[in-house]
Amino acid sequence: MPIEVRGLTYTYAAGTPVQVIALDGVSLRIDDGEFLGIIGPTGSGKSTLVQHLNGLLKPQEGAVLVDGVDIWGRGTSLKDVRRRVGLIFQYPEHQIFEETVYEDVAFGPRNLGMPASEVDRRVREAIKLVGLDEGILTRSPFELSGGQMRRVAIAGVLAMGHPTIVLDEPTAGLDPRGRDEILGHIRRLHSERGTTIILVSHNMEDVARLATRIVVMNKGKIVLDGTPREIFGKADVLHRIGLAPPEVTELMRRLRLRGKDVRMDVLTVDEAREEIVRLVRREAGAVHPSGVETRC
């Protein structure tokens, strides 16, 4: 179920002195099973873009196609589109309103007209997917910790069975442990169930670790599109638009600026360690035991 964005343009407060061009002719294709990361400075158009993917915003110019069908075309049902593409906002726990966890997670499947047995199956499966025990289903969601509430809110989206899920800063405000737990569940959803994931994030380390492809946005346009190694290997471009690559990638860049022959596409701590060990051994091998530098 590919998603295509064609020449998408969107302006807030159009025609007024305070108008802001959020999207400026954006075109993008997202294939089945991708894990796409979308990054960019604040105000680059990331959230505006993803809100078009399931019809929360209507294009002012351009089109959005899901499985080859214009989601705003004549005869297209946005309800059907939203069954295919789910969207999880920042702080999704703010959308919790039912008296029990069970009722909250069941709300979406019930609205889709599913029979009670299917609703029950989906609720229990979704709760397990986000790492919560079924014993929590009878509790009030408002008695839970912030991280647990976040997972309940995400379970409510997962229970609807979307083949594509868009997450806009899903770990905002969580501590490192809570962030790692949420992202771990998202990664398993992608690897074990083949769900297409579109992740908007300001955390470069998370995107580098999880995404198979990254799109970089700036001033309403896509400025880079490639694999994590390709994108973070262009650290100078990222710096110019106000983004910092992962810390280990930045370390390699600074070593290169000091004349060290190191890779620029390092993404993980383990890779950085291997590269530094290689550098140290090579430089040590270039010096004779007597202290006289030799040529290699």
Which regions contain 5 or more consecutive residues with pLDDT less than 50? none
CATH class placement of the largest domain = Alpha Beta
- Helical element count? 11
What's the overall geometry? Answer: globular
Give the terminus-to-terminus CA distance: 54 Å
> How would you classify the helix and strand content by structural class?
alpha/beta
What would you report as the Rg, rounded to the nearest angstrom? 23 Å
In terms of DSSP E residues, the strand content is 15-25%
Please name the CATH architecture of the largest domain: 3-Layer(aba) Sandwich
Task: Write a concise synopsis of the structure shown.
The protein is α/β, with parallel strands linked by helices. 39% of the residues lie in helices and 20% in strands.
Describe the overall structure.
This protein has helices spanning 46-52, 78-84, 101-111, 116-129, 146-158, 176-193, 204-210, 228-232, 235-240, 247-257, 269-285; strands at 3-12, 20-30, 35-39, 61-66, 69-70, 85-88, 164-168, 196-200, 213-218, 221-226. With 296 residues, the chain is α/β, with parallel strands linked by helices. It has two domains: 3-228, 3-Layer(aba) Sandwich (Rossmann fold); 246-288, no CATH class. It has a six-stranded mixed sheet, with helices on both faces. The protein has a four-stranded antiparallel sheet with strand order 2-1-4-5, covered by helices on one side. Strand 1 and strand 2 form a beta hairpin. Helix 3 crosses helix 4, helix 3 runs parallel beside helix 5 (146-158) and helix 4 (116-129) packs across helix 5. The protein is globular and about 70 Å long.
